[in-house]
Design brief:
By secondary structure, the protein is an alpha+beta fold. The protein contains 7 helices and 7 strands, in the order ααααβββββααββα. It has helices at about 10-15, 20-25, 35-50, 50-55, 115-120, 125-135, 165-180, and strands spanning about 55-60, 60, 65-75, 85-95, 100-105, 140-145, 155-160. The strands form 2 sheets. The chain has a 5-stranded mixed beta sheet with strand order 3-4-5-6-7. β6 (about 140-145) and β7 (about 155-160) form a beta hairpin. The termini are far apart. Bound molecules: iron/sulfur cluster. Iron/sulfur cluster binds near residues 18, 185, 186 and 193.
Amino acid sequence: MVAKVRLSYSSISTYKQCPYRWKKKYIDGIKEPMSEAQAEGHRFEEELLKGIDDKRMFNGISFESCHTQLPLTCTINYDDGITIDLIGIVDLVIVNKELATVIDIKRPKDYGTWNEKKALADAQVPFYCELVKNFLKKETRGFYYCCNKKDNRIRFLPAGKDCGTIIADAYQCNLGITQEIFHPKQNFMCTICPYFGKCTEGATNERTD
Ligand code: SF4
């Protein structure tokens, strides 16, 4: 039987995409190699956040204090009595007297197609806003800081407010894990999955990269 696990945004997304890959990563503990795009993303983030607390300014917003790479947890209580612990590491939270601004930094290469519509529809920052609200007991607003691959311009895009889909996905994910449902499931990430060609589903795909 699988012990109760805490779920992050990326863990929930991975389970939704492919339960088999999720099990390899989160139960068997097999680390996935970092891609060059991910490594570049980390460098981009580090550079951006270096010394930010001294500057007291981010993208034109002045602030009193800030948190970088802030690890947070909260517990969601569902109507049927199920409780799920959620976790998240928030890239940047800048804090003023009344308001906490929650910012997720998207990496230049692998998230290069961000635009206003996509930012408003995405549930990640609304999910982080819930965690921050629970932690700081302040109102929040969310943004994505991202670079569009087409024109290489940095954009600071307002996030939506609805994290209902990810809360519902967390419920389904928890249900699947407790029932030990870990089958491979073909999806758009197969071509960059380390198990491509080694699992029954991924082996039937054609690589496109
Ligand atoms: S190749 Fe696709 S189906 Fe196979 S484990 Fe990876 S994501 Fe799942």
